[in-house]
Amino acid sequence: MADAEANVALAEAAKPDARTVQVLRDLANRLRIRAIRATCASSFGHPTSCSSAAEIMSVLFFNIMKYKQGDPENPNNDRFILSKRLSFVDVATGWFGQGLGAACGMAYTGKYFDKASYRVFCLMGDGESSEGAVWEALAFASHYSLDNLVAIFDVNRLGHSGSLPLENCIEVYQKRCESFGWNTYVVDGRDVEALCQVFWQAAQVKNKPTAVVAKTFKGRGIPSVEDAENWHGKPMPKERADAIIKLIESQIQTNKTLEPKSPVEDSPQINIVDIEMISPPAYEIGDKVATRKACGLALAKLGHASDRVIVLDGDTKNSTFSELFKKEHPERFIECFVAEQNMVNVALGCAARDRTVAFACSFAAFLTRAFDQVRTGAILGSSVNLVGSHCGASVGEDGPSQMALEDLALFRSIPDCTIFYPSDAVSTEHAVFLAAKTKGICFIRTSRPETEVIYTPQESFQVGKAKVVRQDVDDKVTVVGAGVTLHEALAAADALAKQGISLRIIDLFTVKPLDVATIVSCAKATGGRIITVEDHYPEGGIGEAVSTAVSMEPDILVHQLAVPEVPRSGKSSELLDMYGVSARHIIVAADSGTGRRSPGTEPAPVTPPDTRLPAVPDVLYAATAASLGQDTAAARPRLHRAPTEISKPTPGRHHLVTEAGRTAATEP
């Protein structure tokens, strides 16, 4: 009781004087005027939303926050998160619900990595509190006792198109925040004196984040617009703007301003640029290592190269092998639990102002849930590394819900995103170290099955440079693969070599940027014939990337092998064969391109279905039959695809051939 009374007394003492209160009110009104003028000039913007938060902004920036005005990116400054990207806003949330997760990352970095005094403030609208990512972030901040974090809910009742579900039920917001373990205050968002007090009180609270639930009105201070619907995102009519501005100006009593407080300069000076591989990879050719495990080992090794490397995981650390990093660097591992959207937001916040080199790990299929967060990070130019394991049908028994077969398409669509797709343990280690030094969003795609090491420890790798792992002057076809399909390509090459047919094999290493020069050069050396093979759906994957890259080159034919439909559960090798991306299918495609057939690989006629591309295991027929409620014989047609026919290129035209045998031709 004595402590509570003491806090009340201190809060009273922290009240701003009358002059400061008036200046803060006047600054809020000046903000309203500027919002009205700016949106009228551009004929676009959100003056009503700006008006509801004007007092909150004036109190934060001119009474509470500590920062250097002329140096907005100073590492000692307090942080502020808003939906707009401004000089003092490190991570603009853009789409609703993303700001608090990024603020969590900044606060975590400040408390546990920088061990500094700066605080983090996140202003949110009540509309975005419907987003699940907000509640993921609330749970995260409470779990990690982020007492340097303040979330402000601007509860103005109205959303984009109408009133919100809770409208002005402030007590419900309060109870929800408190139930998540947050220290919570309810305040009149128009009362600058009360705002000053609650923000001061928040700074005294230890081991809990603070939520400030501020009751406001949309369009505050604008006659006939305040608390009215259908004004979201609309500038004031120009014929009314001058009168509105004059009315607001009449309420301003002083021309004074306030200087922000200077920050405590206790953030460490850091360097995340000069991170080098401390020793060559410790693998020998022929070792069998899953690239997901090699990635975990590489992250642990990278952690010794720089104490600013951090790893986040979404409760998959024993599958992604990020637990190997945690074992060696427990203080730099962040468990984000099953909340991938928040995990990516936290990573974006941790990486802001180049305070850390962040790697966020999960199954690649689960990372697709956070595509919107990745997209936002790319818009901001953030540097965050995402590691997606368990890609493709080669995941095996876990089935299609765990198989990432769309991830390359998603990440290829992200501007300036670098996509690493290593094929063995050596290239995986290089991918991790290169990602740590690469600006922008990076995605490392790793696989579940063990694959043989094919590179020596001395092999060097570069972003955007493929490896030609097998070549001869008599090569007939160029095969482009990555990950597990590279090893299928090598197996096909070994089989065909015994028959006197040689294949040129390319390991892409990076799917984006693509090594177009190497692909074109190899294609021209092999009669213009390319086969792409990938553990991914045809749409947006390696085949489409290569086809686009060579589309302006005459007389190059691209034959795409990809997973054509939603896979079923089974052994990895069986599924690769069942869905057309195994060595056997590469041999068939290569034979078609060379005008011959290898013994034992001839594709059967299209009809009857039972005779097409045999050797699908009976256990898979039985599983399919059970799922369809049919007998095994009836299920067989569902598990077969017609063999691919490759058409001959017409001189001067560009042909792209898909697995389904469709040929598209365009004029050069």
Structural descriptors:
single chain, 668 residues, alpha/beta, 7-stranded mixed sheet, 38% helix
Write up this protein:
The structure is a single chain. Helices cover 38% and strands 15% of the residues. The protein has 668 residues and is α/β, with parallel strands linked by helices. The strands form four sheets. A seven-stranded mixed beta sheet has the order 8-7-9-10-12-11-17, with helices on both faces. A seven-stranded mixed beta sheet has the order 14-16-15-18-19-20-21, sandwiched between helices. A five-stranded parallel beta sheet has the order 1-2-3-5-4, sandwiched between helices. Strand 20 (654-657) and strand 21 form a beta hairpin. Helix 2 (18-42) packs across helix 4 (54-64) and helix 2 (18-42) runs antiparallel to helix 9 (238-249). The longest helix is centred in the N-terminal third of the chain and has 25 residues, at 18-42. The protein is elongated, with a radius of gyration of 30 Å. The model is unreliable at 603-616, 623-628 and 632-668 (pLDDT under 50).
What layout of secondary structure does this protein have?
Elements: H1 2-13, H2 18-42, H3 47-52, H4 54-64, E1 79-81, H5 99-113, E2 120-125, H6 132-143, E3 149-155, H7 170-179, E4 183-188, H8 192-204, E5 210-215, H9 238-249, E6 288-290, H10 291-305, E7 309-313, H11 317-320, H12 323-328, E8 333-335, H13 340-351, E9 357-363, H14 364-367, H15 371-380, E10 385-389, H16 407-412, E11 418-421, H17 425-436, E12 442-445, E13 450-452, E14 467-470, E15 477-481, H18 484-497, E16 503-507, E17 509-512, H19 516-525, E18 529-533, H20 542-549, E19 557-561, H21 572-578, H22 583-594, H23 618-628, H24 632-635, E20 654-657, E21 663-666
Parallel strand pairs: 1-2, 2-3, 3-5, 4-5, 7-8, 7-9, 9-10, 10-12, 11-12, 15-16, 15-18, 18-19, 19-20
Antiparallel strand pairs: 6-13, 11-17, 14-16, 20-21
Helix pairs in contact: 2-4, 2-9, 4-8, 5-6, 5-13, 10-17, 13-15, 18-22
